[in-house]
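Progress against Task 2.4 (sequence-to-structure conversion) is shown through the following example record, which the project officer requested during the mid-term review.
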Amino acid sequence: MSARMLRLATNSIALAARSARFAGRHAAHRPAQISAAISKNLKRWASSTTPHSTASDPAEAEALDCLEQGTLKLEEGDVQAAKALYQRSVEIKKTASSLFNLGVTHYHLKEFDEAIKAWKESIALQPSSPDAHTNLASAYIISPVSRPDLALHHLRIAASLAPEDPEIAFNLAAVLEACGRLEEALEQYKRSKEYGVERAAMHIRNVSAKILGQRMAAAEKESKTES
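Structure tokens generated for the chain above:
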């Protein structure tokens, strides 16, 4: 399985820092059939809102500083300190980046309801972020009351926003497979492999075998009915 990180957003561009992109390392509450398959990756984090963002007033400057300091703390592994700084940034000025990163800290602390809330607010401000949709999907899967239907919804959006992202395709395939939507899962596993996720090959074989088994069982049932 992959070892990517939660994506935080730096200047609206995901950093190459890796952690646990899709609900993998804290999978105690995820249905077993999903946890066995999905990628262990969240998407990364963000350190500011735009490549050329400037603070026009002291409050905005403080919000940006808290965002940057929070990211430094997160990189150091101090999740609680990062959370406090991101929360302060959000209190001063809500931005998609500060809410996104706040969600990352909630997720790491297994505060899944809070992570979901933060990422939904981030998406409201920046609907075109595939990272936010992917992370939100992971939270829906790993939360105590798993919602694969909502995870599918946001993974489909993420896939439409980043159609060549192999990990999004892999995670979408895994949830589709767990929901019994094997033909769609097979298509997404193939896309994932095409874009470089080698472990998808095993899942392609497994899902293909499941589909074949279903077809054989259906044919046998039809044969018995006719006779």
